[in-house]
Amino acid sequence: MKTLIKLDLDKKPWEQDGLIHNRWHPDLPMVAMVKPDDEFRVECMDWTGGQIGNNDSANDVRDVDLTQVHYLSGPIGVEGAEPGDLMVVDILDVGTLADYQWGFNGLFAKENGGGFLTDHYPEARKSIWDFHGIYTTSRHVPRVKFAGIMHPGLIGCLPSKELLAKWNKREAELIATDPDRVPALALPPNPQSAVMGKLTGDTAKAAAAEAARTVPPRDHGGNCDIKNLTKGSKVYFPVYVKDGGLSMGDLHFSQGDGEITFCGAIEMAGYLDIKVSLIKDGVKKYGISNPIFQPSPLTPTYRDYLIFEGISVDEQGKQHYLDVHVAYRQACLNAIAYLKKFGYSGEQALSILGTAPVEGHISGIVDIPNACATLWLPTEIFDFDLKPNADGPKIYLDGTVDTAKAH
Amino acid sequence: MKTLIKLDLDKKPWEQDGLIHNRWHPDLPMVAMVKPDDEFRVECMDWTGGQIGNNDSANDVRDVDLTQVHYLSGPIGVEGAEPGDLMVVDILDVGTLADYQWGFNGLFAKENGGGFLTDHYPEARKSIWDFHGIYTTSRHVPRVKFAGIMHPGLIGCLPSKELLAKWNKREAELIATDPDRVPALALPPNPQSAVMGKLTGDTAKAAAAEAARTVPPRDHGGNCDIKNLTKGSKVYFPVYVKDGGLSMGDLHFSQGDGEITFCGAIEMAGYLDIKVSLIKDGVKKYGISNPIFQPSPLTPTYRDYLIFEGISVDEQGKQHYLDVHVAYRQACLNAIAYLKKFGYSGEQALSILGTAPVEGHISGIVDIPNACATLWLPTEIFDFDLKPNADGPKIYLDGTVDTAKAH
Amino acid sequence: MKTLIKLDLDKKPWEQDGLIHNRWHPDLPMVAMVKPDDEFRVECMDWTGGQIGNNDSANDVRDVDLTQVHYLSGPIGVEGAEPGDLMVVDILDVGTLADYQWGFNGLFAKENGGGFLTDHYPEARKSIWDFHGIYTTSRHVPRVKFAGIMHPGLIGCLPSKELLAKWNKREAELIATDPDRVPALALPPNPQSAVMGKLTGDTAKAAAAEAARTVPPRDHGGNCDIKNLTKGSKVYFPVYVKDGGLSMGDLHFSQGDGEITFCGAIEMAGYLDIKVSLIKDGVKKYGISNPIFQPSPLTPTYRDYLIFEGISVDEQGKQHYLDVHVAYRQACLNAIAYLKKFGYSGEQALSILGTAPVEGHISGIVDIPNACATLWLPTEIFDFDLKPNADGPKIYLDGTVDTAKAH
Amino acid sequence: MKTLIKLDLDKKPWEQDGLIHNRWHPDLPMVAMVKPDDEFRVECMDWTGGQIGNNDSANDVRDVDLTQVHYLSGPIGVEGAEPGDLMVVDILDVGTLADYQWGFNGLFAKENGGGFLTDHYPEARKSIWDFHGIYTTSRHVPRVKFAGIMHPGLIGCLPSKELLAKWNKREAELIATDPDRVPALALPPNPQSAVMGKLTGDTAKAAAAEAARTVPPRDHGGNCDIKNLTKGSKVYFPVYVKDGGLSMGDLHFSQGDGEITFCGAIEMAGYLDIKVSLIKDGVKKYGISNPIFQPSPLTPTYRDYLIFEGISVDEQGKQHYLDVHVAYRQACLNAIAYLKKFGYSGEQALSILGTAPVEGHISGIVDIPNACATLWLPTEIFDFDLKPNADGPKIYLDGTVDTAKAH
């Protein structure tokens, strides 16, 4: 496998010869061109570009500079790709790097990014996950071990000027409804810390001023954080600019559906082996608005789950109308309450839900006024029996070990 | 297997000797008592109590009386059950009835119930699904066939007075925010068409006036429409009243995650074989707010899916904040647009998404401002190749067959 | 589903209006004719025709009359079927009968049939298995419970005269090599107890004198005892006589690969729902010698197995040449030795291997002189932890309960 | 992951500083010592030590020197291991080497090793398989692609003197029954080409004269060729000598059950990441005769198989008694006959059965006189529809491409 993008992880993202960018903009020059059916390797930094360390303090998570994220490798051009085509991306492999056999999961402080349960767990926290071949364990979250489902959290093609303008407009309108909210409703273009790949000088500055941030998933895919885009899967991306411009990063060793801890999954540096090809005019032929994909035949399999239900009544007892966000939050809180009965701290339980191969299902979405969401927790990842029985739960953790705090 | 509740499907729900009710109220008398570890059969009508016929007109779907639904069998008491216990329900089997080897799927008219995509498909429509052993096909939706995953859409224990009051209060507050909305935001207590089981006379009238409607899933479970509560699964229900009072109904031969057509899955009459037992004081022991469950080792398995992404930008291009409801709607609309390229009508495609073993995942829910939902469509249920290729889609249906319309 | 063959289980096999036969012969008249694409139900007796009772004595297993077996329902003719066609049989459903919610597993006495491990377990033994919806348990084999994978042990089309002659010749030649062996090497035609369906008088007698016994699987399929021919599977059978003549029986609620107890699986009466169609001239088109089939999407799933290896060195330490029979026997004996450490008797362990969803794999068959076979035992069917750990096994059974003996 | 055994693949096996051996003997010195719970990497040559090239001629397969095989890395000692313990080996990962992104599959000539179907396919043939991340394809076998299930074909602990003597005795007795057979019945000790690791001089010579060949699986495991010992599995090996002495090699990218081509699977060089621990006195505690193991949660999943049956009647029509070897051979021949209808040569079909994730099941083994074996061929690995239909098979290969021949 030819390495198309080779990084030096001892250097900063902006010292990588323009192979990395952290904004979406149509003018980003291709860092390499490939032909249809080419196979090649792309190395990626972790999404923060190395801001988080393998240690027992969450200071770095607390102080993370979110204007920097996400650091992506690319864009890569495919000869012959034109707007309206589908770029078919086979994710042939995803792997770790020999000297980076660990990843991190963090809870952002409410003041700095927050997350799905930030009102319940507002402090910065961190857990480090060591890799053991296909498995991972954490010294901060004992008695749980699972096989990874490695995937890029973020992958997609460059937007066109028109698409970029549409993104900026609709997100600005949302922000305008509550511009001072903490955490923010959305992140507008921000030239601070922008890394614009091979663009330099005034062109780079101009692009950075209007370039889209990388946080949300959008029409082109992007930061979908879909755990099933793992090695062996195949994705069909809409092409918006000449040559396509495929970029990728934010690799995860494992993630639960929803990536509810925001920072996020088990975040890591690593590599992707991919193959690209084209379906000419595929967007129109197949009526595509967002990427579609096929899963891999090689994913970790679990059979025995404990499944938690949540409905769209919030923590204060207020009734929401078919709101799956609220319903899934309740399912997650229910799972956390359950795990705490076995001795886990809330933050540890949350870390498990964010990193382990947890499934989040939209179970019912029409039975007014309650949506019903379910969280599927594989019991086989615990080294004790998690299922209910007549004797009640046994406490397996004595509280001496917890996720790392800031101090 | 002893038949604890035996119905006569030639009779109306209210002619079944008080074995059926269609409201939730703590005063509903037990129709039978069982002991822990008992195993028994419960027969159930379809959720409408026989309002929908096996024919080619959607008039009955258009005119359905929703004040009647859902017709439930029970409540069944378990000796020794007390508030705070967990009632453990093993769903040993779910089956069809010899003379009812068919089910229905409907799109309600927007004026009469609507559904998840009612703004796109506002007309009443119906498809009839014939059962062939474990499989089903529809004369209204050609070229698709799948194994059922039979389950009760609705099952749970009677609420206490306090819980009922809480439900009524929070739902009334929601309704008050837009009382004239069509479809309604929620359904308040309504004595019209109430069937109160063994309650009679003034007691029944008084109960019906405050009894909760059966449509939404709530804290006790109820109408969760979770397709995975299939034969072989095990559910832990909170108990709120003496003897528990377990009721069930709304059987489905198959359903997609979300039950997006509202009427709904493949709806059918049938039976449940269940076993009950108790975990004394289990609610507190395990910190339970909503039912939890374990899936079955016996569920239809698919490997090859086409997966559609949706983000929380609506059909008008408006940006919503981490709204999974909107995101899943986009994923569904994307799947429908795709299926139409092969010749299905929009209503047929919608019917497939509502009935087939489609998975709906909450993939990303923290990447502001976009939630990302995915709809997993098993390609193996089609008798043609549904996957994208360079040649573009082939039209396999000529439009001569469609879902049944009202006229 | 139309019931094509309806039995009265209170009557003997030979009192069923000629709907049952227990020998293979081309002259057996069709008991019913169907058209291609017809769907219908066929009821079946258990393979012994009711010789084994739901009780706690193995006397009936010890004294079973094996000249009677297997009692089959059919043959059923398919209009248009001709020799050389493939008869496509969809096994739409397999079910139990309302009044027969139990099955039996037996170890035949070495003097009367024996079995795979008859030198180790020569006594007649019996275990009764109760059905609980999709699950089964046995009062004779505690602490194990599993979902059934119901299937016909025996199904196939009538042989032609030529095929029958070939069978009789090759089996006679084998018997001639050791005619007095106990158990016998093979079973020659035997008119005693022959039930010849709709054939009567001298024709029946003549046919019975040369008809093939039903015990072995042969070119046409027959007694393959393949547990995966379960509800939802599809089989392609070669047709040898006009109209095909499909017969079936020997229903199993569950069985392990190899059916190593001979009597055999969890044997039961029940029904099959099937659909038939034809591929004209399919035998030649596809180069078919034996039936081929496709599995069901609906089979019990297990993830956690304990896998036992066996090699082709026998119990006396003798080396055999790539003999999978010997290797699988060692794998089975290894599993039994292991299960005994937890308190099971050898016969109980054997009963588990014969009935539970155990897989038997031919793992290596070229590494002279040893074949390697593996037996896959799903650990999830036990209600205790079966896996090795540093503390050694715990004894969970105190020996007070065992399989039923003869007396 | 620390690399415990690092090889130089440009050198010969006997030039690797004694890190490699190709015979089993108790006196082989440990090449390294580890502690219980250590995790480490072991590099392995391909089983032939580099005799087979990535080219289009089968000359190397024809001329392979089988006195050399198998080249194993080790033995590795575990501190504290004593005879009677169980050595628990977690196979954390199995991987390819950066410069060796290919493997080979060969049919040995009948005169030089032969194989399972050597009477049908007696010529030397070869196919080269290229790796594409988790997938593999072959330029010699078009239109088939599958995910690998990488595993060591050979792994186990050193035998004791007593065990070695037992092996040599029983195998010699078998050879003596037909000493001139081609291929041989078994392979006696042979000092020619013996590589004895760290043993040197006369000690090495003496050991080589009695050391066991590596071809067969034996009591200690060894060359089991079990495809399910893949990354993520856990094996319990009996310990026979002080420190255990774990050796491993014969890595496969993928293999079908039975490894029916002998040479064999997709053979490759690569690495294993393993973790070792001990269960003291585990052999007795658990009654272990052969290794037992648990499978991985991460294995390629297929749902749609075409399953071929075989019974123990051989190609000449001769009846064998419950002979699974014969039955599985028939199942394989049936599958080959079928595949040829689509245009594959017999050798190509055989190569598919040897390399692809084909399952071989012992389906029935008690129905005298016929064993029934089944071969499960996943249809999803072909890029065309392999299933029978009314139109008959379509020829997808024109015969211009075939496996490589010798010349």
Automatic annotation (TrEMBL), chains A, B, C, D:
Signal sequence extent: none
Keyword check for Hydrolase: yes
Keyword line: Hydrolase
Domain of life: Bacteria
EC nos: 3.5.1.49
Broad class of enzyme this protein falls into: hydrolase
Entry's transmembrane regions: none
GO MF, one annotated term: formamidase activity
Entry protein name: Formamidase FmdA
